[in-house]
What does this fold into?
Amino acid sequence: MFVSVIGAGYVGLVTAVGLSCLGHDVSCFESDSKKLVDLQSGKLTFFEPGLDENLKKQIESNKISFKSEFYQADFDKSQMLIIAIGTPQLENGEPDMNNINSFLQRVCKFSVKEDKVIVLKSTVPIGTGDSIKNNLFPDDKIHVVNNPEFLREGTALGDFFNQNRIIIGCDLNDGYAFEIMEELYYNLKSKSPILRMDRCSAELSKYAANAMIASRISFMNDMSEISEAFGANIDSVRASMGYDDRIGPSYLNPGAGFGGSCFTKDVNALIQLSKKKCVRHPMLSAILDSNYMQKRVPLRKIKKSIGFDLKGKKITILGLAFKPKTDDMRDAPSLVLIHDLIDHNAKITVHDPKAMDNAYSILGNKVNYGDINDYYHSFIGTDAIVLMTEWDEYKCMDVKKIKILCPKAVFIDMRNCMDENEFRKNSIQYIKVG
Ligand code: UGA
It folds into this structure.
C-alpha cells in the first residue's frame, strides 16, 4: 500500500519505519529542514533503540523516503495519509491543533479522484475526527479514521510490532475505511486484536489509557508516602498488589514522578475537555496534583539527610532522561530537582548515558557535566548521589567505589532499583522511596 506519513517526530517516524518494515511503501513528510536532511541520510535526531538500523535498511531498500512539502501529486499517489503531527500542550492546558489544522486546510483543497483514508495518529481532542470529516472532507471518497498509538519511548519499535490492540475509529457504516485499515495492519493481525469503534470513542480510548496508567503511578506514589510514614516497605506492598489479577503488576513503581511528553499533557487535555462540557473530573486533577508533589520528594530527601542549607553542597545526579533507553528530557523529574538545587546554590554534577547533549541545551553552564564514560568520577567528594533514572548502567554499579570516592555521601535511590544490602554491607546510608 502507498502510505504518506505526515510528521517525522517520534510517533511519525516509528510508525513510518514500522509500516515500511511491514511491506508498505512509505513517504514521510517533515517540514523541519534540518531534521529532513538528517533523515534523508538515515540519521536520527533522537535516540530510540533499534530505530536507526531499521531506518537505514528501509531507505536502502527504497521502502521509505523523506520529503518536505505535501503536494497534489503526493495526495494522488497515496491510498492513505497518516497524520502524526505533534499536539504539544498550550498554556491553557489544551493541545495545540494549529499545525494539524493548517495541514488539513491545505489538503481539503486538493481535487479528489479516488478514495483516500485520512488517519489521525496524533492524540487529538474528542470530537476532532468528526469535525474534520464534517467540516473539511464532506466528500464520500474521503474517509476519516482515528487510530491512536500506544508506543512507549525506549521500546517503541517493539511496541509497534506487538500492539496489544489496534483501535480503528471510523463511521460505523464505513466498510471501506475499516477494510483498508485492516489491510494496513494485516501482518500484525495474528498478534493484535483489531477493535472497531466510532471516532469519538477511539479518541477517548487514547486519553483514558494514558490517564489510567498515570493514575496508577500517582496512586503508588501516594502509597509510598503512607508507607514511609508508617515504616512499611512499599516494594513489598507493590509486589503483593501485583499478584492480584484485578490489579496486575505493571506501572506500579513509585519513583520521582512521571515525566515525558504524554501523561501530563493528556491528563491536562482531558481536564480541559471535561470543563468544556461541565463534567466533573476530581480524579484527573488528583493525578497531576500528586505528581507535582512527588517531583519535590527528591529535594526533601536530600535536605532531610544532609541538612537544609545546601549552599556549596556537592550533589551528583544520575539519570536525566524522563525514563531509561531514551534521551528525551521533556517534563523530566530530574529537571525539577536540578532547578530546585540551583535555587539553593548547591554544586550540581549530572550524568546520563544518552541525554547529556539535551541536558546541555536546557541547562547550559548552570551545572557540571560528569564524564559520560565514567560516572564514578563525579562521585569524588560528593555529599549526596541521587539516582533519578533507572538506567541499567547504574543498576550494576560497584557500590564499594562509593565508599572510596565519597565516604560520607548518602545515596538516594528515587527508583528503588538498587540492592539495599550492598549499601548496608559497605556502611553507606541508602535512602529509597517508600
Ligand atoms: C506513554 C504510554 O505508556 C504509551 O502507551 C503512550 O503511547 C505514550 O505515553 C504516548 O502517549 O505517546 P512514555 O511516556 O513513552 O509512554 O513512557 P512510559 O513508559 O509510559 O513512562 C512514563 C513515565 O512514567 C516515566 O517518567 C516513567 O519513569 C514513569 N513510570 C512508569 C513510573 O514512575 N512508574 C512506573 O511504574 C512506570
About this structure: The pocket of uridine-5'-diphosphate-glucuronic acid is lined by residues 149-153, 210, 213, 217, 251-253, 255, 258-260, 262-263, 322-323 (CB under 6 Å). The chain has a mean pLDDT of 97.
